[in-house]
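In the lab's daily routine, each protein ends up as an entry in a very long ledger. A line of letters takes care of the sequence, but it says nothing directly about the fold. The three-dimensional part falls to structure tokens, numbers that each stand for a local backbone shape. The outcome of that step, for a single protein, is printed below.
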Amino acid sequence: MAAITSDITAARNLNPRRRHRSYPRVIKRGRHNAYRVKKPTDTGTRHDSPPSIQLAPTAS
């Protein structure tokens, strides 16, 4: 069992790391669903690093 688990979790079998990106949720063709249809102004924003989390100070 340990050999099978180590084979499954080997680096060659894992998915590659995802890029940091944010795109609007749109579709190319309009059908009967809740998503907007893509327009020429819908462009994505590529990020070169992960998001930085900033916590706002709380009132005491």
In short: The first helix runs from residue 2 to 8. The two ends are 54 Å apart (CA to CA). The helical segments are 2-8. The first strand starts at residue 21 and ends at 22.
